Amino acid sequence: MTLDAGGLTLSALLAEPVDRAPRAAVVALHGGGMSAGYFDARAHPDQSLLGLGARLDYTVLAVDRPGYGDSAGVLPEGLGLDEQSARLNAALDDFTRRHDTGAGLVLLAHSYGGKLALTAAAHDREPGPEQQGRRLLGLDVSGLGHRYAAPPEELPDDRGHGHWTRNWGKLRLYPPGTFRESDNLVAPMPVRERAEAPHWPDRFAALAARIRVPVRLTFAEHETWWRHDDTALSDLRNRLAAAPRVVVDRMPGAGHNISLGWAARSYHLRALGFLEECLALRECAPTGR
Questions:
Q1: Structure pTM?
Q2: What are the CA-CA distances from residue 136 to residues 104, 124, 259 (Å)?
Q3: Which of 4, 27, 88, 261 sits in a 20 to 30 Å window from 170, CA-based?
Q4: What residue ranges carry the coiled-coil annotation (predicted)?
């Protein structure tokens, strides 16, 4: 399907429940050098977030971020985070006008997509009465921290988007056929995304204090892009002080690309469980909040 992102056409993958209204909607945002298909991997039947979510009564919308999919030709250099956030918000307005999103939206994002999710949440606006399905319920982000573990010379540059061992980890973490299938999922990382990468630690500090929805962050056991030691995670939580709830989870038997590995189903079920917790917290919140 396609979305109108303020005059820019974004491609997306959509899965909806059959014969019933969705409980809520998951908006999935892929990382750098990937595509929306990251959330609909087919190397193993248990990998697809779209299939699982629809079976469990959620709408799942996986968006090709600006500079990927249908917009790649129009934006060969991509867009920075602020511009991507504005385009994403316009696309979600278009989507919620045309589709039932139940109680609202959760942004489920991976790696660079998590940077976009945090940016969008920091600039989120309270929807009007006619846009209740546009309400942001929470953020679920994997493969993203706030302090790099990789040295500066290994950050994305004009030669690529990072060494493959940091993106994938040990080959045994992925089902047979994953790398053959991934040819359809991998895409060039736009130059403007690569240019912004070194500045993320400072940018996170400015965004984190503005996040006012529940946040869940997942680090793979074999994550090597980001620091996730106790000191780093304590500082990360402290910076998200305005969020009503911050959950930090670890995913055993997983590399950076969690949704393409054997751990995909477990991660997706945990993420949908977090969505259910967001729904429950919303129902029991004191009136007037």
A1: 0.95
A2: 6, 8, 23
A3: 27
A4: none
The C-alpha atoms of residue 35 and residue 39 are separated, in whole angstroms, by 9
The second-level CATH assignment, the architecture, of 2-284 is 3-Layer(aba) Sandwich (3.40)
Domain boundaries, the chain: 2-284
In the 8-state DSSP scheme, what is residue 198? G
Q: Confidence class of residue 128 from pLDDT cuts 50, 70 and 90?
A: low
Tell me what percent of the chain is helix, strand and coil, each rounded to the nearest 5.
Answer: 40, 20, 40
- Report whether pLDDT(124) > 50: yes
Whether 97 contacts 134, CB under 8 Å: no
| Residue written as token pair 């968006």 | 63
Among 42-51, 81-90, 148-157, where is mean pLDDT lowest?
148-157
